[in-house]
Amino acid sequence: MNKDKIDDRRVRKTKRALRDGLAELMIDKNLRSITVRELTDKVDIHRATFYAHYKDIYDLYEQMEDAVVVELNQILINNFSVPSIQFYTVLFEYISENKQLSRMLFGNHGGISFLYRLNLLFEEKCMEGWCKEWELSEEDEELKYKVRYHVQGCLAIISRWAESNFTYPNDKLIRILSDIDKSMEGYVKNKSTEAQNNK
């Protein structure tokens, strides 16, 4: 086998071990309470190996967060226009396939930057999608307030699910979120009708 491929595989394995180890530690501890030594001891990797890939614990966390934001953005792009049950099914499948990571990021020991970034990402997509579909202005302040309330509520439900170690059945949560979406879509439709009538 090619030496570069072996080295690449080792690097991926090392990084995966460090990511999984940090996610596990953050179930019970805040990021600022975790040391590089604690993490490397946990996953049985030399500290020098850690520093070959990351500046510090925060650098590792930020890279993990960045990767998840990119992947969730792709899920939004690919699935935003599908029925809400289908969208949440795809989203929850991603979360279920990345449980440790999701518990770290959505749980109460994760950094606030992750949920803040997700709020902005989901709000932007909601505004863009609904305004385009229903011919509404993206400058509509009332709609912005409603969208923020809607998005933060949905993410709070997902956070609670992660904090409870995913014990609540995901099909029931998908149904809850889908029902919430229907209420929001009803509001957006009414807004669109009012806008059309006022022209």
From TrEMBL:
Residue span, HTH tetR-type domain: 12-72
Ranges annotated as DNA-binding: 35-54
PANTHER family xrefs: ACREF/ENVCD OPERON REPRESSOR-RELATED, TETR-FAMILY TRANSCRIPTIONAL REGULATOR
Keywords (A to Z) from UniProt: DNA-binding
Molecular function GO labels: DNA binding
Protein name: HTH tetR-type domain-containing protein
Keyword Phosphoprotein set for record: no
One Pfam family from the record: TetR_C_8
Claim: Transport is one of the keywords in the record: no
PROSITE patterns tied to this protein: HTH_TETR_2
